[in-house]
Write a structure and sequence with these properties.
Length: about 425
């Protein structure tokens, strides 16, 4: 199912925590019981990757695991998985009908209290996980944490993966305010694992966590700095735990930052399943994660000229992608396929990406910066670049193929553009540009 049947707005009527709790009650959901077996993943970048790693780890431990992530790439079903399988269309439609009915009843009781799309998706996921008997719930938070519906779960295990300047009109005007908003997804008594990029706000986070009776674990205190050797043939990672020792494994996820994400996932798993973290170190962990993937996050395709694709949409996210791409290219020539959403910090992201690529094809996906405008902005930063324009992702791939198979293609700029390029690429059966 490509889109939700509910057709709800992105933002609801004000803060939605009380509203979501009331609708959950109408649906017969026991949020406390669901929360006790939940893990919530918050942060700026890397949430989806950490969530998928955790789902793989819990599955490897024999737990029937439900995974709720957002947004999706190609089909709405992708947001809901149990044991690695997306929800069936018919089941999704049936559960959304239940949510729609509960929302209608709520609007009768509370006129004007309009729910948001994410709230409905969250409730749909909980309905399915409860109905299907999931042992463990891995839930990716939406925007922030303080007013995010996932806060209602009061999950005992929480991760704050990373920190970046995102959604600042909603979350705060400084990185500290953003960090503390996200921290509020954790209830008193919870254990929160914090990624390396939050270190700059450590004092404030620890002060607030102490006042809230939240236990914090910093990955930098538990692990030595990770080693990462990434290439198109595989991503070799070495992690060293202060107590357990060394873990060497090859990941299917590319990008040095995935080693940082892996530390977060492993620390959350250690808190949720200390028995298996100890008994399964390192063989169970390495085998559970060996095939774990997150589509459109430093995803590599080797057909034809080759394609490296990433959906990073913040300055830090796209900066990490550029760094990782340059490692994977290892000096080989590349053509950048670029599209950016108009509601993102376009100027700051262009400042990062433009110095790295001198051959570029610009285009636009849904809600994207107009092609001519994006091309002009790129040339302002890289006047000597060869910049061409394409009407859409299909046209961009066709134009890139005019250069032959010698230049690897790199698609960057945001989620909608990554989805469009990925869909166009997968729809093409040619094995070389000459076909």
């Amino acid at each position: 199912m490509r889109v939700s049947t509910l057709n709800l707005p992105r933002f609801g009527a004000g803060i939605g925590l009380a509203r979501t709790a009331l609708i959950a009650q109408r649906l017969g959901l026991d949020l406390a019981a669901l929360g006790r077996r939940s893990v919530v993943i918050a942060g700026s970048n890397g949430k989806g990757s950490v969530a998928r790693m955790l789902a793989s780890l819990f599955a490897g431990a024999g737990e029937r695991t439900g995974l709720f992530t957002s947004p999706h790439l190609h089909a709405f079903n992708e947001r809901f998985e149990i044991a690695g399988t997306p929800i069936d269309d018919a089941v999704l439609e049936r559960l959304e009908a239940r949510v729609a009915s509960a929302i209608a009843d709520h609007l009768v009781a509370c006129p004007g209290d309009q729910p948001a799309a994410f709230e409905a998706g969250f409730l749909t996921a909980l309905l399915w996980f409860e109905e299907a008997g999931a042992d463990r719930l891995v839930i990716e938070a939406g925007i922030g944490g303080r007013y995010d519906p996932t806060r209602l779960l009061r999950a005992p295990h929480v991760a704050l993966v990373s920190l970046d300047a995102e959604h600042m009109p909603l979350l705060g005007t400084t990185l500290r305010e953003v960090a503390l908003d996200k921290l509020d997804v954790a209830p008193p008594g919870a254990r929160v694992v914090l990624g390396r990029s939050l270190a700059g706000e450590r004092a404030a986070i620890e002060t607030v966590a102490g006042l809230k009776d939240v236990v914090v674990t910093w990955v930098a205190d538990v692990w030595l700095a990770p080693r990462s050797s990434d290439s198109l043939s595989g991503h070799a990672v070495r992690l060293t735990h202060g107590e357990r020792g060394r873990l060497d494994m090859t990941m299917a996820m590319h990008g040095r930052f995935q080693a940082d994400n892996l530390e977060v996932a492993l620390d959350v798993f250690a808190g949720a399943r200390p028995d298996l973290f100890a008994a399964g170190w390192p063989s169970l962990i390495a085998s559970a994660l060996a095939g774990c993937r997150n589509p459109a996050r430093m995803e590599c395709f080797d057909r034809g000229p080759g394609l490296i694709l990433d959906a990073g949409h913040t300055p830090a996210g796209i900066g990490a992608a550029v760094e990782s791409v340059q490692t994977l290219l290892d000096g080989r020539p590349a053509t950048l396929l670029l599209g950016m959403s108009a509601d993102k910090p376009v100027a700051a992201m262009l400042d990062v990406v433009a110095p790295a690529f001198d051959t570029v094809i610009v285009s636009a996906a849904a809600g994207g910066v107009p092609t001519a405008e994006l091309a002009a902005a790129y040339l302002q930063r890289q006047p000597a670049a060869r910049v061409r324009q394409a009407a859409d992702a299909d046209a961009a791939l066709a134009l890139a193929c005019e250069d032959g198979d010698d230049r690897i293609l790199v698609a960057l700029g945001g989620l909608f553009w990554a989805a469009a390029v990925r869909e166009a690429w997968l729809a093409t059966t040619a094995t070389t540009c000459a076909e």
